Amino acid sequence: MKDFLSNIIEADFMPHGHCYFWKPEIVWLNVSGDVLIAMAYYSLPLLLFYFAKKRTDLTHKYVFWLFAAFIFACGTTHIVDIWTIWVPTYRLEGVLKLITGLLSVSTAVVVYKSVPALLALPSHDQLKALNEQLQKEIEERRKTQDELRRVNEELEKRVEERTHELQLEVHERATAQQELQHINRELKIANNDLDNFVYCASHDLKAPIINIEGLLDVLKEEMPAPDEKVNHILKRLDGSLERINRTIHDLTEVSFITQKQIGVAGNGVSNFAVVLEEVEESVSGLIEQTDARIEADFADCPEANIQRKDLKSIMYNLLTNALKYKSPERKPIVNFSTKVAEDYIVLCVTDNGMGVELRGNEKKMFNLFKRLHDHVEGSGVGLYIVRRIIENYNGTIEVASEVGVGTTFTIRFPYSETRADI
After folding, report:
1. CA gyration radius for the chain?
2. Handedness of CA 253, 259, 264, 268 (dihedral sign)
3. CATH code of the domain in which 337 resides
4. Could you give the 3-state DSSP secondary structure of residue 294?
5. Sequence-distant (≥ 6) Cβ neighbours of residue 341 within 8 angstroms
6. Which residue segment(s) compose the domain that 287 sits in?
7. Structural domain count, the chain
8. 70, 107 in Cβ contact below 8 A?
9. Which of 58, 89, 121 is the last residue of a domain?
10. Is residue 10 part of a domain?
11. Choosing a second label site near 149 at 20 to 30 A (CA), which of 49, 133, 143, 238?
């Protein structure tokens, strides 16, 4: 091996030209072919190196490097073939062919292993189709973005218009609220003036009425025994004075109810049974006259934090109302009961009187001086007073009635404000 390497460039063999008998046409034919092949083999690696360098996106660039080296080595073997025609350095030629063979085998192995990956690479047509599809998607996305932009601009325009409308509505509502507040203030002033007028009128009428009663009593004492006609006139005068006094009393009570401000909490506990007993005593004559039966059931809620005077006025007006409008076909029965329902203390007053047609009259019957029956004397003030007292406690009153059966008043007081902590 040592001698082989030391003699690698020794020309101790017969030149290859002897095989061609040194015939010029044979020698130069082979030389020309090897020169052309070598030129081609040397140019191809340069092109491969240039291509691989410019294409930075190549995923199998090492294949190009191996092909370039393999082709370059092949070109070198053809140069050596030309050389050995005249200089027989066959040892050097064999070494170069061995190197070329190793590069060829290595390139073949690498290409074999790279075939699946190379086959997976898309073709030109596939890339063209993918590119066209990508262009379509880009165009569709651009159209979608333009549509979204248009919709967004339209939405912004609508939002701006709606915002402007809302601002106008808010301004109109604020203006309307200010007008309502102004009207409410004027109504309060008018109501106060009316209440003051009612109070003053009822107060100023008391003295003349008292004088008239006194003068009438004096007239009865001083005049001789009147005849039947005069007695009838005197009785009518007494009845008129009684009605005037009752009207003045009702007006005074209405004025008191509308002017006072009730603070419900801490006003004292009222017992429903005790207050009802006081009311029965005050109208005992009317109860006996009508032969009425009064029933009561306050077991569920015997007491409430309601002023005694207010509760008495409510029970008095509802009881007298039930007795005045009793049914002529049966003895009157009036039932009082209480219970706690949700957040309310409920007081129910039920009678078996003549009843009333409620269609369109549910609210009217609680108005001042409103009467639904004219065959019984009354001022139309009682139910109004009841409603005002209940409203002062933030409560409500409802009525259910059927002609010929009876009427039920349902009063609800807020439990949190009127419960009795006992």
Report:
1. 61
2. negative
3. 3.30.565.10
4. strand
5. 412
6. 263-418
7. 2
8. yes
9. 121
10. yes
11. 133
